[in-house]
Amino acid sequence: MAWRIGVDIGGTFTDVALIDEAHGAIGVAKTPTTPEDFGRGVLNGLNDALAKYSIPPAEVTLLSHATTVVTNALLEEKGARIAHVSTRGFRDVLELRRSARADLYDLHQDPPAVLVPRHRRLEITERIAADGSVVTPLAEDEVDDLIADLRALEVEAVAVSLLFSFQNNAHEKKVGAAIRAALPDIPVFLSCEVLPEIREFERSSTTAVCAYVGPILESYLGQLQKATDSLGLPDLMVMGSAGGVLDVASVLGMPAAAVESGPAAGVIAAQLIGRQIEKPNLLSFDMGGTTAKASLIENGRVETTAEYEVGSSASQTRWLHGTGHPIRVPVIDLAEVSAGGGSIAWIDPAGALRVGPESAGAVPGPVCYGQGGEKPTVTDVNLVLGYLDNTSLLGGNMRVDFAAAENVLRTQIAEPLGQSVDQAAAGIRAIVNNAMAEALRMVSVERGHDPRDFAMIAFGGAGPLHACDLAEELDVPEVIVPPIPGAFSALGLVGANMRRDYSRTIYAPLTAVTPASLAAIWEEMETMGRDMLTQARVPAASQNILRQADLRYGRQAYELTVDVPDGSVTEDTVATLAGAFHTAHERTYGHKNEVEPVHLVTLRLSATGNLGEPRFTEGTGTGESLKGARPAWFPATGRVDTPVHERARLAVGQEIAGPAIVESLDSTLVIPPAWQGAVDAAGFIRLTRR
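User: That's the sequence. What structure does it adopt?
Assistant: Structure tokens below.
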């Protein structure tokens, strides 16, 4: 037999998903996340999974991992001690940033902490012009002093970002080579290697982020690789933010590509399921312990964006900037809100009920977990409302304290507001549902899409608990609950392809570029991509290349990315790009101007290695799924006795009328009174309004 394994670190649990390549059978193991040492939780999960399903390590053909190390290092400001080298006179580019603000009216808004303090921001004399010509030659006599300063500062990594190096990288390459020769144990990240694109601040920021998190990521992945090697497992692969896996060497060369690693895996799993059930238009909804994430899949394709800031509220919408560190790498276009099972409910000084952004996380967790939590959370709310088993979770492996959850809701929320416990719990649930519905609107309505044209695929440990309410709010016609929803992101890891993205700025009016010049740049990037895939032992027949271009109207300061047709680059290709841009602009912003000249800004290329797409099947039973009933609260009915089913015993074709609750090891599904569910041939639960 041959198995694929995916490991995803969540805020509360570390999930391990397994799939039998021959039959599509799925397995899952969950273990508590260990924030003090994430690697320990990963190894605990792997050992549990291999033992639970009696899998010899030699039968594992793919081991993929989604890591939060990069994001956590930036959020917690616990990155490496780095230096930043810039053209003389541009020392403060990381601190000056741009004038964008997340809140235009907040005069006291603080920008994020600068990753490199001023005394470690160094300069060197040189100057490249915007057209790539040399204005000031590199002062090579300053290089030795620069290296001496780096030694004295005891830095752990170096970022080098010289002006216009994306047009002419000769100076930057020479400085980088000298530092690497003199300090061989210090990683050096050059902007011309990391991001050869226009925009000085974003290029410098991306390079600095790579240097800031690189040593930590290298240490983490190095230790994890040694541990998995000792178990006899294959080489580790890491999920990238664009939705493809990378080998360890590739991700260490571009650490920023591992941002949003886990959420990306969930969207890829949704995409795979959509292809399997012939649902090309999907809203992906992932609710875990700390956050809820939404993404849109149209015509079977996942949208990506390079307009991303890590460590900020900017992930809530692509047009919100100024509160994080920009990274110009492709990231799956996600809207993320602080709304998860661990989100804490509280009353503000004005007496208004709030939920989040603070989360109980893995430690201490919700009050009902009995691990020291003292503040009411969304999980406590779902328990008190009757949606969760009032004695245990995880198939009986985790005892819960119903009385403690009810008491904390009464004393901290209900009594101060003069409400019953049910009213307070329902209010908390309504608030968190509203926040998550807003995330779904961001990726659909605000992107010019009608939610009524999409089905919602709901996953995460808490996703199926809230999915029908959100679908009701947005008028989404169908909800799909996939296999192992609580570990669904880990399932995406076993079905992802290899992917690495390349880019090159060539700023010019579209009418001024020649097909030959465009073809030459794409061919160079394609060579790099195919070399990477070949080194990862991906056969030539399984290698795919996607060419794209960033375009804008002449007087704009932002771009849209459009696909480039396959085949040779000709005059017709250039004309097709202009037409595709006009169409994309109208779809995104509601208007187009075909008289305005179109400018080419950046050429892009994605190199993908097809690792084989598995089919997922959920085990089904005889249909004798009813295991009892319990009182559950619904807005239209109040508390009513609600049938409780065991998902593993559901039969293909079985229908369940709401209200009902369906329990599984990793998640619980709530079917409201106005909804009904049916089990399809693959074992997925399909929900529609009655």
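The longest strand covers residues 498-509.
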